[in-house]
Design brief:
Elements: H1 102-127, E1 139-144, E2 160-165, H2 203-208, H3 228-235, H4 247-283
Antiparallel strand pairs: 1-2
Length: 284
């Protein structure tokens, strides 16, 4: 059927896609309109889910094609699809993050602590031998609406109910997980060593880098061991004149005199100590 002509739509209210004909919405009719079910929520009573999307434009009037990637399983998620989403935000300016108050931070910390304690105590109680049958009978039911784009979707079943029961774990069962050592990846590339441009080697450089061969004092050119007397003779130590400094005699004489005086002082102290002890005995 065709919609009524212009200026004859006072009592006309489009409800189904057939009321729109082959066109779009009627701007003079101030009601919610969904031509070809565009914009209608999935699973509504008026029409099933539709994959048709309405055209949206941004602030510059350009068509936004990112509405395609925000459908299906990505519905309700934050999808980064533009170049502006990849740019770094200036958190110190107008885009500064709002910090929570002390009360909100304390409540969040308390809630996190309670959740972690409940999780830890639950695992500890499960590991105890006497707590094997404590969780028996604890069942939870969840009601959910299946996704129309998911595989196995049945249009006749609008909602499903799931029964959640904790699976009993045998405490004597060996662990099923296996620790696998991941090989260490390649690190950062080595720092390049910058060299000066190559230069031509001159005769002076060749002579400066010429290292003379090693001459051994133990073996001759044929590999025979050189005798000890010949090695000492070749060393030239026997040709050196041993000279003693004149001050050495003065030093030795001064040391001898100092030692002699020290001995005399010790003997005098010893005799004096004996005399004092002898007088003390006589007075007693």
């Amino acid at each position: 059927r065709e919609p009524p002509a212009y200026l004859r739509r006072q009592q006309f209210v489009p409800r189904v896609p057939a009321d729109f004909g082959d066109g779009g919405a009627f701007p003079e009719i101030h009601v919610s309109q969904f031509p070809r079910n565009m914009g209608r929520k999935d699973g509504s009573a008026a029409a099933p889910a539709s994959d048709v999307l309405s055209v949206e434009v941004d602030a510059q009037g350009r068509v936004r094609y990112d509405a395609v990637v925000k459908q299906g399983t990505n519905r309700g998620r934050i999808v980064k699809s533009t170049l502006a989403d990849t740019r770094e935000k200036d958190l110190s300016g107008s885009e500064k993050l709002a910090m929570p108050t002390q009360d909100e931070a304390a409540k969040t910390a308390e809630k996190t602590r309670a959740a972690m304690e409940a999780l830890i105590m639950g695992k500890v109680n499960k590991a105890r031998p006497g707590a094997i049958n404590q969780n028996k009978g604890k069942e939870e039911y969840f009601r959910y609406t299946p996704d129309a784009n998911a595989p196995g979707y049945n249009a006749a079943i609008k909602q499903r109910v799931i029964k959640m029961v904790d699976h009993q774990v045998d405490p004597m069962e060996p662990p099923k997980h296996k620790h696998v050592k991941v090989p260490v990846g390649n690190g950062s590339p080595p720092v390049p060593v910058l060299h000066s441009p190559p230069r031509k080697v001159t005769v002076e450089d060749q002579q400066a880098w010429q290292i003379p061969p090693c001459v051994s004092n133990w073996k001759n050119q044929r590999g025979y061991t050189i005798p000890l007397d010949k090695r000492l003779a070749a060393d030239g130590r026997g040709l050196l004149d041993v000279t003693v400094n004149d001050k050495f005699a003065v030093f030795a004489e001064s040391m001898y005199i100092a030692e002699k005086k020290t001995r005399e002082e010790l003997t005098e102290k010893k005799t004096l100590r004996k005399r004092i002890q002898q007088r003390e005995k006589e007075t007693r």
